[in-house]
Structure formats: structure tokens, C-alpha cells
Amino acid sequence: GCWVLGAVYTAMFDPKPTQYNLAASASLLPNNLSVYGDPGSESITLFFIHKSAVWQTSITKGKEEIHRQFCLLEGFASVHQVKVVKCNDESILVVAGEGAVEFFGLEGEKLGHFACDQEDSFFCGIDAWQNSEVVVGCSTGEVIAFSSSDFSVVRKSMVHDSPLSQVCVVGDNIISADDAGNVFVLDGNLTVATKLVGDTTDVPCLSMCATGAHICCAFDNGMIHLYRITDWTRVCSFSGHGRSIFAITALSKDLIASVGLDSKAMVWHISQQKDAIKLSLVFTATIKDRLLVGTQALSDGSLMLSCFDSYKLVKFIQTSK
Question: Were both Cys, which of 213, 229, 248, 309 would link to 258 (CB 3.0–4.6 Å)?
Fold first, then answer.
């Protein structure tokens, strides 16, 4: 069973957000925010997509220091997703878009390039696997694994019949989702081990995150599904937002945050109550007249949001844990 409750105890975040200026606004794309910052560091770097370019904003001691266009894909192709991942204990930026995937160091040096030879193809969905590979989804239905040493293709598999919408690594497994609404669990060989959603629904999963015990899948219709990692059983489904959910992130092993096109940010607490999962809404905020397209948890537990058509980043500070 699953219980979904309204707010049951004091909000865990300061309701008055901190705002940071941007030199460009975030495009209307799911998961349009990625953050890099070592735990304990006074500086964080944020990457997001504006039109056909990746932009960077760096914040040190609460003040914006760097605003710059970080990179473009070759041929000025459209970018679909950008994400900082860690491989071989080094952080790199992966840029996925029309016809190509490119890999960058965080100072801007290009480390690798891969182009798909199929016309009108694009890449979407990025994560790191086993600290040694980067997995990326493709519109051809393939999931591709790249070596983090030279960024060559080490494995690829035609897993889906529709374009990939997202991938997420959970332990030794890779969760892959497509535009038709299917969600699969893959093993390290990129073979389908089980299907979380095996029937075409035409409601794609746009964002995923892993907590201590669950994989959380956020869908284009505002629904969130929770699956138990030990046996991939769906343990809870609930309506998290009134419109599409564009990003979901884990703040801890039992806290998840989601943002969507209903202008809302929601934080949910997940707990086990005997044989049932209980979800409690512990914080919600509305960013008036803004479509929320990205969210990332910071090392101090704060929550950063990006908004479409806005030259602001919004940060909510966690006040209790």
C-alpha cells in the first residue's frame, strides 16, 4: 500500500528563496540544470542550456562570479541535455544533442566527440556507470556506453523502439525510459533485465532519481512512480504535479524534490510504515508565472531551481534535517 499525505510537520526549507542573476535564461527542456561543487566548498558551478548553447554560472560565497557561454555542439546543433558526471574520480561535463555527444573538462577543454551517422538522430539521457563509463540514450532506441578514458564506444544495444527520454544508473543497473512511456531495467551488458513499464502509454518518463531504497520516475502527466530497488516492484504511484514534471532529484535517502510546468517545487519525505510506503509533503513553493525546468540538490541540502524564460536561479535553503 501507499499513503500520500499533505504537510504533516513544519516545512524543512526557508520559504523565502535566494535568487541569483543569470546572463541567459534556461530553455524549455527537461532536466535543464546540472551542478558541480565539492562538499564543503564555498563555490558551485551551474550548467544549463540556453537556445543552442551550454551556459555556465559560478557562485562563490553567495555571489555570482562567472557568467559565460561554455560551449556549443559542432555545427551549432541543438543541445538536449547537459550533465556533470564523475568517472575515474574526475568530474566531466557531458553534452547530448542533435546528432552528437561531446565530453568536456570543467575548464572548457573538449575531451571527446561522438557523432551518430543516422540522419535526424539526437541524444538524450546521461549518467555515469561504475565510475568508468558514461551511458547515453539515443533517438534510435539505443543505449550507448562510452569509456571515460578515451570516450570511445565500448557497448551499445538497441533496447527501445522509440527515442530515449532519460537514463539513470542505480547500482549495477541502468534504468532507461523512452518517449512511448516504456521504462526498462538494464544490466551492465545493456540487456533488458526487467520492465518497470512495459506497455506503451505515450506518456514519457522525463526525469528519474535514485534514493536509498527506491528509483523515482517522474512522468509527463504529473505522476510519480516509486519502485523498490531490491525487486523492482512498484510500491507507490501518486500525482505530484498538475502538469508535466520536468525534473526530480534526491536530497537524501528519504527526501525527493520535483519541479514542473505548474510552477511548483515539491519536496516529499518517503518512509516505510509496516507494509506500506508513506509519502508526506514537507515543503512546497510556487514560482509565480514561471515554468520550472530543472532542480538539483546542493551538498548542504539546499535546493536549486532553474526557470524557463527567466534570468534568475532560485535557491531554497534547508533549515532542518
Answer: 248
Residue pair 125/101 in contact by the 8 Å Cβ criterion: no
Counting as low any pLDDT under 70, the low residues of the chain are 1, 3-11, 39-40, 321
Q: What pLDDT does 39 receive?
A: 64
Could you tell me if 1 and 49 are in contact, meaning their C-beta atoms sit under 8 angstroms apart?
A: no
Q: 216: buried, middle or exposed (CB in 10 Å: 19+, 13-18, 0-12)?
A: buried
Residue carrying the nine cell digits 541524444 = 123
Beta strands 2-5 and 276-286, pairing class: parallel
Sign for the pseudo-dihedral over CA of 161, 245, 102, 50: positive
Distance CA 5, CA 279 (A): 6
Enter the C-alpha cell of residue 7. 504537510
Secondary structure (DSSP) of 97-136 = EBTEEEEEETTS-EEEEEE--STT-BEEEEEEETTTEEEE
The strand pair at 79-87 and 90-97 is best described as antiparallel
